[in-house]
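On clarity, I found the account of how folds are encoded harder to follow than it need be. Since the whole study asks how a given chain folds, the encoding of that fold should be made plain. For the editor and my fellow referees, an illustration may be useful. An entry of this sort, consisting of the sequence and the corresponding backbone structure tokens, reads as follows:

:::
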Amino acid sequence: MFVQPVGTFARRVTGAMLALWLFAATSAGASNAAPQPLAEPQSPGGPAMLRRLTEAQYRATIADIFGPDVPVTARFERALRAEGLIAVGTSEAGLSAFAMEQYNTAASSIAAVVLSAEQRRRFVPCAPVAEGAFDARCARQFVQRYGTRLYRRTLDSREFEGLLDVARSAHARLDDFYAALEFTLVGMLVAPDFLLRIEQVQEQPTDTGHSRLDAFTRATRLSYFLTGSAPDEELLRAAEEGSLDRREELAQQVDRLMSGPRYAGAVREFFTDMLRFDQFDDLAKDPLIYPAFNSTVAADAQEQTLRTITDHLLVSEGDYRELFTTRAAPLTRA
């Protein structure tokens, strides 16, 4: 693999710094209390946001939850860019009729693969007690497993029972347990709680004048920031247990995510966004002046740039500023 995890020392230092920044930056609101002298300035935080998943985040989330071999067959509409970044534009983008149509197409294809006769044993954690019967116990296990991962938080009792009712109603019409689960999964995949990152706040337990992001929102922010994908089971468990409220354990989670294979992908995605590589799809040059230019050359230029960045920052642990002067870069073989 071209990109390797960052070194232990650099990961520990960077992880600790990120943890401190995230701990301070996830408060929201303001206090009327008199300011207290501080040894160093603290971030006042910002408002809770509503962010739409980017196409890259959507695809990465599906791959992490169901596996990279489960295809996402949909044509996503062009993302909104704000202040130079698609990642910023996600908080301003709405959901058009075309977008919902494509999300429904993707959800249907994903659910069809997951609940197919060839794959259902891999994804469904149980089997119905009788052929053709609705097994509430098995349906609960399925909804619990994928509802938590897709919604990136624990489902409350109302949501949980609502999804079970959907499965029961679908079974009554379709007379097929796995078809009922497939119908339920499609519903989860087009739900706002999956397509949108809906941030929630709670009151600071030690300061009634301030509020902060709740644990699952913090876990989601952390995961999409460092991995470009949804929180894994360990991070969700830490959020549920309240571990992310402690700086030391937050730093441990940062270290863990940065040492994993998804971190390099998140770095690539950040620079893909910052350098506007999504616009390469529309790039064209005069063939009389640039006869050798084609789509392959454009793709190679993008890949060479990303490999230069990730190799310098992650493998060599170099200074970011040196990217502007380095003479080392991978090239495509002639």
Q: What stands out?
A: The longest helix spans residues 295-315. The chain is about 50% helix and 5% strand. The mean pLDDT is 86. The longest strand covers residues 207-213.
